[in-house]
From TrEMBL:
Span of domain TH1: 920-1106
Organism lineage string: Eukaryota, Metazoa, Chordata, Craniata, Vertebrata
Record: residues binding ATP: 105-112
Protein name stated in the entry: Unconventional myosin-Ib
Record-stated family: Belongs to the TRAFAC class myosin-kinesin ATPase superfamily. Myosin family.
Gene field: MYO1B
Gene3D superfamilies (alphabetical): 1.10.10.820, 1.20.5.190, 1.20.58.530, 6.20.240.20, Kinesin motor domain, Myosin VI head, motor domain, U50 subdomain
Amino acid sequence: MEVKTSLLDNMIGVGDMVLLEPLSEDSFLENLKNRFDHNEIYTYIGSVVISMNPYRSLPIYTPDKVEEYRNRNFYELSPHIYALADEAYRSLRDQDKDQCILITGESGAGKTEASKLVMSYVAAVCGKGQEVNKVKEQLLQSNPVLEAFGNAKTVRNDNSSRFGKYMDIEFDFKGDPLGGVISNYLLEKSRVVKQPRGERNFHIFYQLLSGASDDTLKKLKLHRDFSKYNYLSLDSAVVNGLDDAANFRTVRNAMQIVGFMEDEVQSVLELVAAVLKLGNIEFKPESRCNGTDESRIKDKNDLKEMCELLGIEQSVLERAFSYRTVEAKMEKVSTTLNVAQAYYARDALAKNLYSRLFSWLVTRINESIKAQAKTRHKVMGVLDIYGFEIFEDNSFEQFIINYCNEKLQQIFIELTLREEQEEYVREGIEWTNIEYFNNAIICDLIENNQNGILAMLDEECLRPGTVTDETFLDKLNTVCAEHQHFESRLSKNSKFLTDHSLPHSCFRIQHYAGKVLYRVEGFVDKNNDLLYRDLSQAMYKANHSLIKQLFPEGNPAKVNLKRPPTAGFQFRASVGTLMRNLQTKNPNYIRCIKPNDKKASHIFTESLVRHQVRYLGLMENVRVRRAGYAFRQAYEPCLERYKMLCKRTWPHWRGPAREGVEVLMADLQVPAEEFSYGRSKIFIRNPRTLFFLEERRRQCLQDLATLIQKIYRGWKCRSQFLLLKKSQIVVAAWYRRYAQQKKYQRIKSATTVVQSYTRGWQARKLLRDLKYQKRCEEAATTIAAYWHGTQARRELRRLKEEARRKHAVAVIWAYWQGLKVRREYRKFFRANAGKKIYDFTIQRIMQKYFLGLKSTMPSMSPIDKNWPARPYLFLDGVHTELRRIFHLWRCKKYRSQFTEEKKAVYEEKLEASEIFKDKKALYPSSVSQPFKGDYLEISKNPKYQKLSSAMDEKVLLADVVNKINRANGKGTARIFLLTKKSVVLADQKTGQVKASVPLPDLTSVSVSTQSDGFFALKLKEGSASAVKGDFLLSSEHLIEIITKLHRIGATAADREQLNIDISDEFLVQFKQDKVCVKFIQGAPKNGNSVSCKRKNNRLLEVSVPTTA
């Protein structure tokens, strides 16, 4: 059975839309439906993934699937979101290319789930380890927190993201995650105060009321009954399939994993409760004596409870709901608010409070998950943002969302074309320009700084006088009337005057995805997003730990009379930053489509899907991809797949893969215009050519299967025959063995008799021959000795005569050669002039090189990496060696400048590193501090003159330390003196010696692993110094003290080296009792100082502030 190794194998429909033939919108939808009906929810358009929401769980996200797609080519397996995630991750890890994954689609299409799948896949395939797993867990657990506060149930989706999210996940050089940064865009804060029919408020409100304990609700002054809160819609309060209570526990756990402190979680819940209380505040009208209308709060109980939660004086907030103060230069004008204005102020405060809380949550999560290392990181961005929205009633929110999608479409087309062009250039294929619709004109209509819609909306909001939505529409009709993508009933363009599908209070924009009708009602107010200054100042006066951070503009000392930036301006700036960020990364696209509006599985609504295919621009994407070559594949997998179609390449091709593909295509007689050869890939122009190859391969596989069956059956019959033959041979062999054994026994007995007579005769004959041979050898040796002597004497005489003749010939030859060489030298003198000139030139070049090197020498600093450029190529080796020799000499000169004192300081720093590096959190801060030793200048200070004279030896270290009292954990200041023989503790005020401990009595020193300065001097039991027990001390120069103690012990030959124990829990001997000293991390209370408390007679607890 053939192993499935390609998206072309056992394909349902077409796995890659680029190969769809014929290409039309109907065939496109038919292919999507065919694959969806067979649970194939993923389809490719080149490197773009189309994801259909199945509205049910499918068994395609298991750990086995993760391993199946891990480190595999993008087109090697059937389409899957894991293939895109793996391709992006491997490009980031192996090619050092920053990646971004853009997930788009309308609400309910599965964008949030797609982003979770991408993050979970990356978390599964990257490295392991305690720190790496912690970072991965924090990144994954940030999702439940943001979903609870930013997602809500809508008519289209039970878990709809009501904000845009972009997460940059940062990786190290190995591909392990280091942290991340989250950016949020345009939270739908209007949902806080009002929800459409059939929809809910944000999840956190329902989760809090359903899942919080009774004690928590009591502290927050809340009730479980949803109907008691005006901001919560009742018709969809309970959603099938959503367990709000369980989700609340999940959110609490996720916040703890991400790094939220318990008091921060409580503060967040208090603000959520305050928003619910705000919605219950109602107003009643009252008339003043001057005839003006004002408002009063009906029931102040909810106001009171809200003020208690936030720590605000009730009268301050009540006045802020009743009056509005307007400041202009040096004047202040206070006006009363009528009932409508009071409700507007209440809702504005609720929206701003929740929106700023959400932004604070994102910032707080970023602080926890950001990468700690300062080095450059590789980045993978995941963008989960709202898709294009066309409703019956489209307002400011839909306008902003669609503007964002216009920008994303613009960058999508630009980056897709750029990627296609780069591949063609990389492979050496001729690039053909592709005609496509450029939506830059629509983006310019919206964002142009002079006459764009957003600019005119901001201008209308800021101008003095009466500003309404109608005046804004009039301005649009004046400025944009002639724009080809803008339509309005009241514009100067007469062709729309009779268009009854275009109401008077609306305008229409022809987006890339179709025409959208916008109702201008609410545009000005939503763009202003105005919060009265009185409310901001009232919030700032709160005693709540979080409120002051959320409303910094309420600080009376920093009153800013400038109008805050509008919502449209802020969003346009955010989108611009996002676009610049995306353009620096390699893009990967996931286009999400929802098959029906009923949130039901197995239902494919063709009209709905057609609408999404159009506004996502998928058909245009296919055409862009097919404009050049529809299919491309590397030579190796192409040859491996189709090699059976040619006798010359089957079964094995021994040469390069490209030559094999060329032989294959030539043998199949594929027209040359249907394909092109790149540097590493073959490009096929028409899908029909690919399907032709696939059909030939299918037929060939059938023929091969028949051949294999034939060979197998032949082998099986031969094996049966050989088995029978082998059995017959075994039987015959056993019989012949028996017969031959009998015959052998008879022959053996006769042969033994014959052999015995024969061997006796042979032995006697051999003895006679040996004796004769020995006599002959002795005679021959004597004759040879005399003959060799005669021959040697003759040879000696001959050699002497030959030597005399050779000497005479050598002398004559030498004279002749000399004469001949002198003649040749005179003849060829000019021929040798070139070599001399060459040697002279080389000598001058070398001289010039060394003189030039002398004048361009770099500085004597060992860290200076500069070196003069090499003037000639043949000097490369010499140049490199001279640079190495100069660096070694310069380092030696630098080391020779060190004094003995400076060497000693570096040695102490080195020893401190060996003792404390990666063991004590206080160590890194001590690296940059020099070891001074005598911090009190005891020999110069007259205050310590008496104490200085009492010391017999040189004081190596003098510092003020705190001696810890076991009774209450408080410290008493003592002077700490260290000499080569003893440790002395003296009173700071009087200088009187309190204790002197000889260093031989000191057995060990105990310190914690944290950033405190506590250390315990443990004394030898039974010694005179140990009468009062060990010493528990605290010092700011702990690293230096223990390093000097350890150094003195290491240099002394008469005592053992001092033992240093680094642990967060150790025992200290106080007189007759042993007390446990335990170090814990806690929130800073008295500034950032370390606090020591007595818990009981046997335990002292030291609380060390947590370092950021």
